[in-house]
Amino acid sequence: MDHQLECGCIELIRIIQPTDEERRNPKYVPRLEINSEAKKIISEKFQSPISILVYVGNTGVGKSKLASLTAGVLQREKYNQSLSPFLSGPDPKGVTHGVWMWREPLKDPNKSNKKGSILLLDCEGMGTLDQKTTANLYLFCMLISTAFAVVLRPARVERQQGERLQNALQGFANMKTPYVLPNLWLVPVELPHLMKNNKIISSNEWINEVLSVTECNNTLSTNENKLLETQYNYIRQMLPNINVANVSYLPICFRDDSQLADDIFTQLREASSECFYTSLSDVIRQLLKSGGKRLPGSYSNLLYVRPAELAHLMGDLIDIINADTSPNPDELIGKYLLERFEQEIVKKKIAEFQGNLLSTTKSYLKKNLRKRETETQMNDNNIILSNERNHLTKQYITEITKLAEEKIYGPHSILLTLELFKRSLDHVRKAMDEYQDPELLIEKIRSNFSTNDQNDQEKKQKILSDDTEQRLEKITERINREDLINASISGSELQVDLEQCSECGRTGGIVSIIHSKEVCSSKRNGNYYRYNDQEDVMVCDALNPTYDSGSLGLNGTGVNIAVVDGRINQAMRFSGSSSYFYAYDVYSGKSFSVSLWINPSSIATCTVVQTSYGLYNYACHNLLGFYSTTGSTMQILVQGYY
């Protein structure tokens, strides 16, 4: 598409045309492809909260034209005329193919502050695509949109459109994740008033009329009417809250598609377009009422998806859709929610647990351990401190679970019962158990009493006390840092003086900055920074291995990860020594074989250090690791199947 560089729009999703053989295969899954350049634009230029408006509908109803006019209304000033509108025009095969997006972030004209962006999408007109491709495009648009707007001309949901909506909604039927259904808007164009029998009616009355069958007013057979009624009932059952926003008549200057290349911004604001401009502005205001896009499946109204997060979610969602005839993104959504849970709740609470346990231990020892203990006293003290550890562990696990309900998942969410969340809590318990600073403090104090030199004891006690205070201060700094980072990411233009990114040197924690690959040595895109506990530095989201991690996400750290062509090499992660690693979701549903080389050395110095076979969940793994006596890994091989 040579015109992409000149257009105000850019292709987001492309439909990969099947071969003749694939068309004849009943098991063939239509394939979609996401444009990496569009993902970069979302990651780099957009700001959370992001409202995502998607126009869908039948071929030829004027979706693309309405999308271009929507962009014109949302522009706050006259934009560069090289930014051409969405392609539109009379073509029986349609003009828009796949899903296109406006490449510039748009702003809500009704908001005085600058926070947030509007992402405008134009979906291919339905009627020229096969049923499965249509359902997949609709499923994608429904999952990522804040307003799924079905453009109607004439002002009715006819049988084919009802069938397409039903097919797309059936993709949600087997999903267990709550809070994923779209906000459906019916948008009849060139309909200044909602009418019935020449009388203005309410929105609810109009929707009831449009989504009900009146046999005396149509030419369908009895069976066709029953089928249409079934479709309507299914749509209303799945989406109990359906809205309508009608658009007035198009001005004469916009009826000819060739004139859309002219100055839309100025023409919309001329006196001859005043009625239409007011009508479309009101429609946009209604479509934006639902606010910014939340992470799919999230309970909290404030758990907004972040730009880089949205871009990667789109890519991962396309992977899920391409992988199965009946795609179910439950696990994918669960992984994104779990990432937020671990970032925004777990990290801070583990730090609080550590600070509380160390502080409690210090206070107890200061009061009860002033001299060498008898064996009985030692056992009693060990039991008391062990009980305190168990008590705090239980207390913080309870708090973490409660916060997960309140801030992420919602009460009684099915996601809280899934193995993914349970494993995360197990990791939290393990992290708490592995925190041994209080026990080391006890050992050092007891060791001090092994000498009879009072001055030496006091000197060592002072050193231990100062060291413990420094540890507590560092924990407090970690807690405060997490608060500042989360506040700066979600706050309104809040800028916090945080540590710099170790890679590109920019200050972290600011959601509104533009972070492009030209200014970061990672040569990847992102727009916020987060603290990396393992490395004790700020890292940008483009360097965070949680992103670009394959369809099922990555459980890893920021080191020892091979990056190939901008992607982490099939989600491989080292654990412990450099001779052992895990492979996650290498190729879902298929056999796989992976060879990874790191710092090859002489074969003569290499020995086999580990071979293993295991069945974990639904994945079978065979692992063979070579390790060099000079200290560098030669080769790691993995084979298996899902």
UniProtKB/TrEMBL annotation:
Source organism (scientific name): Rotaria sordida
Top-level division of the source organism's lineage: Eukaryota
Alphabetical list of InterPro entries matching this protein: ConA-like_dom_sf, Guanylate-bd_N, P-loop_NTPase
A Pfam family reported for this protein in Swiss-Prot or TrEMBL: GBP
UniProt domain Guanylate-binding protein N-terminal: residue ranges: 31-148
Protein name: Guanylate-binding protein N-terminal domain-containing protein
Transmembrane segments: none
GO molecular function: GTP binding; GTPase activity
